[in-house]
Amino acid sequence: MTEIEQRRRDVAARLPELKADALLVTSPANVRYLSGYNGSNGMLLMLPGETHFFTDPRYALVTKSIPGKSHVIKGPLTAGVVKIFKQKRLRKIGFESAWTHYEDFAKLKETLPLGASLVPVGRIVEERRMIKSDDEIALIRQSVRINSDALANVLKRLRPGVTERDIAAEIDFQQKKLGAEKSSFDTIVAAGPNSARPHAHPSARRVGANELLLIDMGTFLEGYASDMTRVVHMGAPPKKILEMYRAVLEAQLAGIAAVRAGTTAGKVDGATRAVLKTHKLDREFVHSTGHGLGLEIHELPRIGKKDKTRLQAGMAITIEPGVYVEGLAGIRIEDTVLVTKNGCEVLTPTSKDFIRI
After folding, report:
1. Considering the entire predicted model, what is its pTM?
2. Which residue segment(s) compose the domain that 48 sits in?
3. What is the rounded distance in angstroms from the CA atom of residue 301 to the CA atom of residue 266?
4. Neighbours of 84 (CB within 10 A)
5. What is the C-alpha separation between 101 and 346, in angstroms, rounded?
6. Are residues 77 and 205 in the same domain?
């Protein structure tokens, strides 16, 4: 049995508990996970024992490599989907409520066979995606390595006076040069006070000769993401910046130490916050400690305060506490981490020593 076939079997096995005869998969990442298809227009209809894939004529040739029954549809794919509903006399059709657009939902609902209904099933495919296979882990490792190598190349070229946008562009270039498909999100490069905004967009601002630079970057390799954040200081950093950095590093290491199969995501988040509280910086930590990643840059589980998800070996997550002081700077340190039975493996090879240029 192939990996994709096993994924399909595992997801289909949950249909009875969801009181659904079939599951309509529309999330692009979930369609890829269950079929290998990475085009822009595709749907899957999963029944116990069989799967139907739908796409348009642009991808007709691709269907030959997709397991299961394929249907090339001219016009809206939902027309082909409803045809199968009728042929198979389906009554309860599960749909991805987190992903289905209202317009698509309305069209499906109005064309359903008499007596059929749509059943919201939430994120059951994403729950299966949380545990990575050996092949997925290998791709994430490669993605992480490319990302770290790209940063190393960029650091050799960093000089005061370069704009945030120019640095971001160089990062994206280096990632692709090293084999990445693309960045896994819009690269964040934020200098000086801009770094106090956790998700700042690169601007035309030039990096000063004596200020902090925050870089948050990731790559996609064969569909799998990596994520890393480091900070760099141009010139000699002031005492306050060094103190903030040490506090964030201590919190990040505490978060990593808390990661192991069986513990909850909330406890990992709590470990980072407890450290920052001792430094009286917990109020400056305004986001969660991390997130899962894989076919998407943000996946389950969320490593947040109230998250009760129990970590399992094979989960790929980030640990990324940060503190942000308005008018001064923001510091975030982030690694991609693999959960193991007795702890975790930090996949990110880039040093966490304070970088000075």
Report:
1. 0.94
2. 3-129
3. 10
4. 19
5. 37
6. no
